[in-house]
Amino acid sequence: MIQGVKRRVTQNIKYNDSESYTFKPVKLVIILLCLGVFFYVYTNWQSLLEKLDNRPINAFILTNNPSYTTYDDVRDSVLKMGGLKGFFGQDIDAVREQIETMPWIKKAAVRKIWPDKLSIAVIEHQPIAIWNEGEFLSKEGEIFQLPMDKLEDKNLPHLSGPDYQSTKVLEAWHQVNANLTEKGLKLKAVTIDDRGAWQIVLDNNLVLKLGRGEWKAKLDRFVTIYPQIEVPENKKLSYVDLRYSVGAAVGFADIDAN
């Protein structure tokens, strides 16, 4: 009796193993089928989404009241992309990148509004100085372009120099301006040349040539000698050269007829 029971148990175990081996190929086929479907969707998801669209995006709203960017600016920029796709098919990163090609745009954010609109917000560079007479500087010292007709305050400082020196020139402006303000003078422009020599212009267009190196002692010297400079009749003081260790050289120009 005991041997008979053992034989029946052994037969049952063999039968269950046979079922397990039969199930494994079916399981593998299901896995491969799922992987195939996933790969197809992954490689064709954009075209699949586009098939869900029945009309293209045809409007947008410009939020956060930017200072320099108008509705027409954004529209003209987006039109350069050609026609937009629909709500599901349109890549908003492509729209964002296109808007950020406007040189005064620091960053843009774009989102979709059902069924056919975009919401666009922009962060702009804020000009605090004119750079090399054709561009602008932000408070971070970044150089950017902005149409002059968009600028309300045209009485910005004029800063000049090699582009890689923009941050250094901006820092010098703040320091020199503070120093001159204490002396009752107003600063108009700051320039550094390729050799590292500094030159500043006061609000009366008087040029001060400071040269390289330390400049505070030179400004102190200018304040001392400025009232003592005798200007010839029908002339005006054009520049004061302070690049010497002692004293200064001066230059004169004819007074404008008007």
From TrEMBL:
Name under which the protein is recorded: Cell division protein FtsQ
UniProt cross-references to HAMAP family, sorted A to Z: FtsQ_subfam
Transmembrane region(s): 21-42
The entry's keywords: Cell cycle, Cell division, Cell inner membrane, Cell membrane, Membrane, Transmembrane, Transmembrane helix
Domain POTRA: 55-125
A Pfam family the protein falls into: FtsQ_DivIB_C
Topology relative to the membrane: Single-pass type II membrane protein
GO biological process, one term: cell septum assembly
InterPro entries, per the entry: Cell_div_FtsQ/DivIB_C, FtsQ, FtsQ_C_sf, POTRA, POTRA_FtsQ_type
Compartmental location: Cell inner membrane; Membrane
Organism, as annotated: Pasteurella dagmatis ATCC 43325
Subunit comment: Part of a complex composed of FtsB, FtsL and FtsQ.
Coiled coil: none
Principal place of residence: membrane
GO cellular component: cell division site; plasma membrane
PANTHER family reported in the protein's UniProt record: CELL DIVISION PROTEIN FTSQ (PTHR35851)
Family the entry assigns: Belongs to the FtsQ/DivIB family. FtsQ subfamily.
Its job: Essential cell division protein. May link together the upstream cell division proteins, which are predominantly cytoplasmic, with the downstream cell division proteins, which are predominantly periplasmic. May control correct divisome assembly.
Gene it is expressed from: fstQ
Highest taxon, organism lineage: Bacteria
